[in-house]
RNA sequence: GCGCCCGUAGCUCAGCUGGAUAGAGCACCGGAUUUCUAAUCCGUAGGUCGUGGGUUCGAGUCCCGCCGGGCGCACCA
């Protein structure tokens, strides 16, 4: 509906431009939005205010002229002008009910926007190093990344979700050494634990598995011989756990990429060489540097190959992003932890060096999650083994509550996750509020069937009262929410919308009975709530939250 | 010291790319169910949008200074 109104307003402006004698400036950025209060109408537009300069008229006068043009449009019931120049539009009730009828009773496709030709989006997220279990911060990134991928798909983009594994390098060595030492300690050897080793209990478990399968086979071999096995074995075990956690969290990836593979295939060397040839990388003091300062106004140039000859993490990431573009993606979204924000400039520089538009790379920084437990903030660090794992959180509060909570906040606001509250809150948590709306509607149909009805009857939309039309309007905004939250990469907008919709429904449920003695009225209301349920269900689906029939 | 994010009700947070009288949940207090699930609904109360300037028809939103909190500033990842 918003789209229809937009077109009507756009057409009115265009007509005025023509009659005013000309294609002057391009049409300004006119916005059509749902006003803050119902008394201002269904939609309002700032058209007159933003184009007052072009027409060289006062906003109020221009608004009057546009309004009289819009009054001729059969779409509108009424058109009003309010100072300082808003045009408030009320759409005919029959237009609303006609469009509302078009929402399927029960169809997961509703809200899907037309496919966008030539747009291929890659969303890379989580991408946690396989050095330890996922913690709550990863959980937030997972929920947000997954919801963004779902939203973009719904908004018509061709989307792939991807996880990049840093399965090589110093940290992996460090990880392998940690397991190796634990392994030796199991056999009674007095070996000191590495200073920067991973101290988590899970390392012990993995050491035990090695001992169970291989006995003391590695006890006397040199560290250099044993380490590769311990590194890759530990990494694999942990990655399997990560995959299991993500699966339980309803996060799916289309592709798993491996840093090691980029090294093995020569892609890293290849990328460096071509950038060297292009003059984007230079040598200094025995190392290779990316001109990130010049390319993206980074604080300084960044090393991609050390004097030791070893490449840096950035080098692999350059090769990785070159690969992303080669695979035909036109938009690349990287979901990172906020502690990586210093990485944005150099990555943009890398993209530019590769000859791509830096704006096509869009890093999303997920702010810190602080966990509150027993009224206290819990500090977290993977290496020290002190953290609350995603698994623990899911065990306590459940997948639905965890996902919903993560998706209630904007990704760039810090989030305090109060474990006790979220757990205890089972009756008041917004997630249950929304789910309850779905369950309530479902139960209405159970009741209707229990009464011996086999058909829902034929709705008569002229019977709808004001509350019902309001509910319809809210439902019909769903595609707009898909569009807006996809465009803004902001799933929390959808979350808040669902709470509002659930609120409207609960109010309606309390005020009006759906099943009544009047057959036509019942049929109409059944048709209404069936569509409300479709929207709630589809909305929750985009957040990755279940829509139960019963609660 | 430099850079990024944040500062909105007692608490946790929305406020959609500048729009009309700043919202929701929790907590507190008071009410509502003979009828489709009370995990619900209705009502009261709660604010100098950290602070001081600036930009314009109009600022919680944009710009600058300051205060406070978080995160970064590697030939680590």
Write a concise keyword list for the protein shown above.
551 residues, alpha/beta, Gyrase A, domain 2, Rossmann fold, five-stranded parallel β-sheet, four-stranded antiparallel β-sheet, 21 helices, globular, RNA-binding
Describe this structure in words.
The chain is an alpha/beta fold. The protein folds into 5 domains: 2-91, Arginyl tRNA synthetase N-terminal domain (Gyrase A, domain 2), CATH 3.30.1360.70; 120-167 and 250-272 and 308-366, Rossmann fold, CATH 3.40.50.620; 170-236, no CATH class; 369-427, no CATH class; 430-543, Isoleucyl-tRNA Synthetase, Domain 1, CATH 1.10.730. The chain is 51% helix and 13% strand. It has 21 helices and 15 strands. It has helices at residues 2-19, 47-55, 59-70, 93-101, 136-154, 170-186, 201-214, 223-248, 259-264, 267-277, 292-296, 313-326, 343-353, 390-397, 399-406, 419-424, 430-450, 466-476, 478-487, 491-511, 519-543, and strands at residues 32-33, 43-45, 76-82, 86-91, 120-124, 158-165, 255-258, 281-284, 287-290, 302-305, 331-337, 361-366, 369-373, 376-378, 415-418. The strands form 4 sheets. A 5-stranded parallel beta sheet has the order 7-6-5-11-12, with helices on both faces. The protein has a 4-stranded antiparallel beta sheet with strand order 1-2-4-3. Helix 17 (430-450) crosses helix 20. The longest helix is centred in the middle third of the chain and has 26 residues, at 223-248. The protein is globular. The two termini are 33 Å apart. The model has no long low-confidence stretch (mean pLDDT 88). The structure holds one RNA strand of 77 nucleotides.
């Amino acid at each position: 509906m918003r789209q229809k109104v937009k077109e009507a307003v756009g057409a009115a402006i265009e007509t005025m431009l023509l009659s005013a004698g000309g294609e002057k400036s391009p049409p300004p950025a006119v916005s059509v939005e749902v006003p803050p209060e119902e008394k201002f109408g269904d939609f309002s537009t700032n058209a007159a205010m933003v184009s007052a300069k072009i027409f060289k008229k006062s906003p109020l006068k221009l608004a009057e002229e546009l309004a009289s043009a819009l009054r001729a449009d059969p779409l509108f019931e009424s058109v009003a002008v309010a100072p300082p120049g808003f045009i408030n539009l009320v759409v005919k009730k029959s237009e609303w009910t006609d469009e509302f009828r078009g929402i399927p009773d029960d169809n997961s496709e509703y809200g899907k926007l037309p496919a966008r030709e030539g747009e291929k989006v890659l969303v890379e997220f989580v991408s946690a190093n396989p050095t330890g279990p996922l913690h709550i911060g990863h959980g937030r990134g997972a929920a947000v990344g997954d919801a963004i991928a779902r939203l973009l798909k719904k908004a018509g983009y061709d989307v792939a979700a991807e996880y990049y594994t840093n399965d090589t390098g110093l940290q992996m060595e460090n990880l392998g050494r940690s397991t190796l030492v634990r392994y030796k300690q199991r056999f009674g050897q007095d070996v000191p634990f590495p200073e920067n080793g991973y101290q988590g209990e899970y390392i012990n478990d993995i050491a035990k598995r090695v001992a169970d399968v291989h006995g003391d086979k590695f006890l006397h071999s040199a560290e250099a011989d044993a380490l590769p096995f311990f590194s890759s074995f530990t990494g694999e075990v942990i990655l399997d756990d990560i995959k299991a956690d993500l699966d339980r969290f309803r996060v799916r990836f289309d592709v798993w990429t491996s840093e090691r593979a980029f090294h093995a295939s020569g892609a890293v060397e290849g990328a460096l060489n071509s950038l060297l040839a292009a003059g984007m990388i230079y040598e200094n003091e025995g190392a290779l540097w990316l001109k990130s300062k010049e390319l993206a106004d980074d604080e300084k140039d960044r090393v991609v190959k050390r004097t030791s000859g070893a490449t840096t993490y950035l080098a692999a990431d350059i090769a990785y992003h070159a690969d992303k573009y080669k695979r035909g993606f036109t938009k690349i979204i990287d979901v990172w932890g906020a502690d990586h924000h210093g990485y944005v400039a150099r990555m943009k520089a890398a993209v530019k060096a590769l000859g791509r538009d830096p704006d096509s790379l869009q890093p999303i920084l997920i702010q810190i999650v602080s966990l509150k437990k027993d009224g206290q903030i819990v500090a977290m660090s993977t290496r020290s083994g002190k953290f609350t794992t995603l698994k623990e959180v899911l065990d306590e509060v459940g997948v639905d509550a965890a996902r919903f909570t993560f998706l209630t906040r904007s990704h760039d606001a810090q989030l305090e996750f109060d474990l006790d509250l979220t757990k205890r809150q089972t009756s008041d948590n917004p997630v249950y509020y929304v789910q309850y709306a779905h369950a309530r509607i479902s139960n209405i149909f159970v009741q209707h069937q229990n009464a011996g009805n086999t058909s829902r009857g034929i709705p008569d939309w002229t019977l709808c009262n004001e509350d019902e039309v309001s509910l319809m309007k809210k439902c019909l905004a769903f595609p707009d929410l898909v569009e807006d939250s996809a465009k803004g990469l902001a799933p929390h907008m959808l979350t808040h919308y669902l709470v509002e919709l659930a609120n409207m429904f609960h109010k309606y449920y309390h005020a009006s009975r759906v099943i009544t003695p009047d057959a036509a009225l019942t049929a109409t209301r059944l048709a209404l709530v069936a569509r409300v349920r479709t929207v709630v269900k589809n909305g929750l689906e985009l957040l990755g939250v279940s829509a139960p029939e019963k609660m």
